[in-house]
Amino acid sequence: MIRHIVFFSAADGHSVEDVRAGLLMLADIPHADHFEVGSNLQTDKISHDAPDLVVYAEFADEAALAAFKAHPTYAACTAHVRPMREMRIAADFHAS
Hints:
The protein is α+β, with helices and mostly antiparallel strands. It has helices at residues 16-23, 62-70, 72-81; strands spanning 2-10, 34-39, 53-59, 85-94. It has a four-stranded antiparallel β-sheet with strand order 2-3-1-4. Helix 1 (16-23) packs antiparallel against helix 3.
């Protein structure tokens, strides 16, 4: 299983809810076994540049993740969200 985690922050002048709504477009892509967008609770007081949102998804394998990223909705989501976001950090790893 591949776990896919992406952190986002909203750019100045854009609401976190608008970014979240854009990211939820990804939920319609069929290749993920699990997909969610959550608001960061920001309980870590050490990190001053904490992300606003977290995308978490699980995929059966790397092929499923690649198919997810190749889906037309992924490109549409990226085009929609990119102008509204300040930061994006992604990580993918094999679950143990």
